[in-house]
Amino acid sequence: MTDVATAFVPGHVTGFFTSERDDDPTKAGSRGGGIALADGVEVTVRPAEESSVSLNGVDLEMGAVERVLDALKATATVSGETDLPLGAGFGVSGAMALGTGLATSAVFDRPLSENELVTVAHGAEVQAGTGLGDVVAQARGGIPLRLDPGGPQHNYLDAIPARTRVEYHVIDELSTEDVLSGETRTLSTAGQRALSRVVGEPTLSSFMRASRQFAREAELLTPDVREVVMDVADSGGEASMAMLGETVFAPGTGLTDAGYDAEVTSVHPGGATLLE
Fold first, then answer.
1. Quick one: 217 exposed, middle or buried, by C-beta within 10 A (0-12, 13-18, 19+)?
2. CA-CA distance, 189 to 184, in Å (whole number)?
3. Domain 1-276 class?
4. Residue 265: pLDDT above 90?
5. How far is it, in rounded angstroms, from Cα 76 to Cα 79?
6. To which H or E segment does residue 39 belong?
7. pLDDT tops 90 at residue 244
């Protein structure tokens, strides 16, 4: 047992996904594709007499984190630090859950493997209604393709072998819970089509095309996002909408070339890890 541990978890933007329900939260989740980002979340866990959660110094309730602590039978303070906005499609909730699992295991000497901790975090986020596939992708890194739903023991992962600069422009937040709790049949059909396209042509350009088409077919594309995506296309670049947030992401310099003051990051090739 140690007094403190910190984990780094990459951010994650989802380009397309399905919604796969199951009574077992470790089997529920999504198929889809996304990009792990070098901009991520550092999660620090310390033993405490009463559990609490904070992000960038602000106390908040985060059901996925609380479920991870319960599953690991730990009472701790969990503090996250990130430059990524919450609720804008960057997988911050999933990062907090996964980072909590990794750091709690180190602090409290829980004898669990990495896959077991990822499974705990994935199940916690599914139950909290804040995500379906971010945790598995954040544990993998790169540009992962989730070919099956569920945690790592159920989910076969592949990836697009590419590295790139990534720009993003945040317009507003969207509620993941509201979208996932509604009718998702149209969304899932569009997500499966997108995944099939990218599996058949596993390139970054194919991923971006499939992501844009998914946003339209799933009826998630907002007018403001569409305007930015079209501006990038008019400037010769590629862009799409981060799921689920009113955020536009683009490889290379697409947003900058279109005149936007974009945030800049890159593909994070590795997955979540404990820090020294």
1. middle
2. 9
3. alpha beta
4. yes
5. 10
6. strand 32-47
7. no
